[in-house]
Amino acid sequence: MSDVRVIKAALLGAGTVGSGVYDILQWQKDEMPKKLGAVVELKKILVRNTKKPREGMDSSLFTDNWKEILDDPEIEIVIEVMGGIEPAKTYITEALHAGKHVVTANKDLLAEHGKEVLDAAEEHGCDLMFEAAVAGGIPIIRPLKQCLAANHLTEVMGIVNGTTNYILTKMTKDHMEFADALALATELGYAEADPTADVEGYDAARKVAIMASIAFNSRVTFSDVYTQGITKITAADIAYATEMGMVIKLLGVARNTDTGIEAGVYPMLIPADHPLAGVNDSFNAVFVHGDAVDDAMFQGRGAGKLPTGSAVAGDIFEVARDIVAGSTGRINCTCYKNLRIKPVDEVQNRYFMRMEVEDRPGVLAAIASVFGNNHVSIAQVIQKSVGEGTAELVIITDQVEERHFKDALLVMNEMSIVKEIPSVLRVYAQSE
Amino acid sequence: MSDVRVIKAALLGAGTVGSGVYDILQWQKDEMPKKLGAVVELKKILVRNTKKPREGMDSSLFTDNWKEILDDPEIEIVIEVMGGIEPAKTYITEALHAGKHVVTANKDLLAEHGKEVLDAAEEHGCDLMFEAAVAGGIPIIRPLKQCLAANHLTEVMGIVNGTTNYILTKMTKDHMEFADALALATELGYAEADPTADVEGYDAARKVAIMASIAFNSRVTFSDVYTQGITKITAADIAYATEMGMVIKLLGVARNTDTGIEAGVYPMLIPADHPLAGVNDSFNAVFVHGDAVDDAMFQGRGAGKLPTGSAVAGDIFEVARDIVAGSTGRINCTCYKNLRIKPVDEVQNRYFMRMEVEDRPGVLAAIASVFGNNHVSIAQVIQKSVGEGTAELVIITDQVEERHFKDALLVMNEMSIVKEIPSVLRVYAQSE
């Protein structure tokens, strides 16, 4: 084994994911020569404070000077696990221009500047891998790019944010309200101090942008993804969903239709027997539909030191294999199409609407006629008297373009018989 | 596009899977140059009867002469979808020796002669890919070999036979007996005329051998996998399982323990909230546990023309990418260890036993003492009087080595108070 090839790498960031990658590379040290025909060794670790002790890590590798890594010709792989757009973007771009291969877990960067960094990789014949950027440890990027490459994929959707899935699971199983479930998630460390990116769907939207780009071979960026958060979901909505045999999940949904790509993140009612309905707590899952494979689903841990480290280290192994085989840059950007992104107004969905109305004859007829006038068909209605002259009306519509539904909503908001419309949610319908 | 590289391939077999591969390659014709930097074109299709018309297929490609393919230097990829050991093994071996790359869906061959064909591929620097051999369209081989390569995997198990999963689903949901569910499966074309390989677990065992070999980096062959079929499962067993919050599934289970690899296929009781418990009808799923990724699951269609074709065509695309990148043979046999296969007597499991005993005081005590004398702990007991002096006793044990359980069973079979022991099943317990 003394003549096994040693590939030097640098780790940018020594936080949760960085320490996971560090540990896994240690554990796999003796396996690597047999698995890869090479050993990947960390030569440098970029940290903000080199004096801060980090348990289990060799502090002699620490540096706070990026140039030391960039200018070291021996370092062939740069592993970026700092997160955030800058300075990650500059480092990755400089590394690629220097001919270094890059493995990154950075969803923010890829969802906004994926094209730029992938183009840089292409230009320099480098590998740029990012399996960890979507759904943590769950293999999804490589299955989409390789295993399912012979499919025309029409749908990729999933539960790609563990924090919100945990909150919705608590609301469903323990009948908690949103605020209480969020407080619990924060206490347990599932939610960050500022939970905005999670609960408003921004984190999920970044992952949708990345997955849609790969699945449909056409660039989708973060700003193309419509988002609706879960902060307004109530225990009442969930109780109605349960009554109707459905479950509310925050879904990232991307569809490739004849008239363009639809991409959104919204709380959705899905049938309780759909495979995604059973994905609970902080688990993630991605569901794919293709013309050949039909339905497939990938499920597992979407975050955490070791699961995310597993995906990063898997990519490092792939780069090492490419270096050994002389095939770096073998698969890079696969966005060779330029498909239209559909504005949300054109997206078709079914809707769930919960409203408080005057409890008297003729009210449902009036509501129904507003829907009818706006091309919205009603699929299901539940009406319950809640006292004090008020009835709660829950309506599920058939599939309709969002703009028609919004038109109907505008009219209803002005109707005197309508007291309040606390909830408007979407209902999942299998694409045709 | 006129200068795009054309890679010629030959298809061996034009049955269900072969026609799926044929169709998918047609559908993807215009996409291939952009996805792969090359176009894969079928030059020959090996069939037994070249005169038989096959709908949608170009009959000018048909040949019944293997030599025509083998001796054609222009053919770079051989796609074997005939199934069975011979002549597939000879053809694949000859193709590899001639420097042709091979894509195959042949689980029988790989589970018994995987080493030989992988060695031949290695020797000649060829690709040999077989994603379709396990769980049809579901990506599992590549995720195990690549995405999860940085894990020490300790468990890989799954529902890898759609026929038996359909039968058990019918028995569970519609309370059918085995014979009726099998008859229905046969009528619907889910079961073959001779269902032995499915219902006895042999088909699943082949997939377990292949998955275990890859997951644990050590060769496991078909004969190493213990099998128990589902023919003796009754509606009564399923009713008890339901009562205990469990579901009966035919599971292929492989574990990498400190004392060796365990590999078996058996009907097992698993908790109703386990992700595999919700995988119903003819769907397949594979569940993996690793030191870094924790739990992950892959789910989808385990068979069928297009799903299996999706996996085969994905492999063909990979070979094409390797040819373009000059990196064929990049990843071949990953069995670099030589781990012991544990005899089934040493395998630890929990057991479910349903027995008919005399309905009088002291009987349970007598049974319990036999278990105690044989190092078997009892976890749960249900006793029901069934009339005519008979009680039905259902016992679930704690984890125990199979040999101890068997010893207890031998004693019980001789006891006069024991009238019959109609069911002995295993109960899934998460590995430690």
TrEMBL record, chains A, B:
Xref: SUPFAM superfamilies: ACT-like, Glyceraldehyde-3-phosphate dehydrogenase-like, C-terminal domain, NAD(P)-binding Rossmann-fold domains
Per its UniProt record, the required cofactor names are: a metal cation
Pathway the protein takes part in? Amino-acid biosynthesis; L-methionine biosynthesis via de novo pathway; L-homoserine from L-aspartate: step 3/3; Amino-acid biosynthesis; L-threonine biosynthesis; L-threonine from L-aspartate: step 3/5
Question: Which terms does the record give in the GO molecular function aspect?
Answer: homoserine dehydrogenase activity
Q: Which organism is it from?
A: Laedolimicola intestinihominis
In terms of PANTHER family, this protein maps to: HOMOSERINE DEHYDROGENASE
Q: Which CDD domains match?
A: ACT_HSDH-Hom (cd04881)
Q: What is this protein called?
A: Homoserine dehydrogenase
Top-level taxonomic group: Bacteria
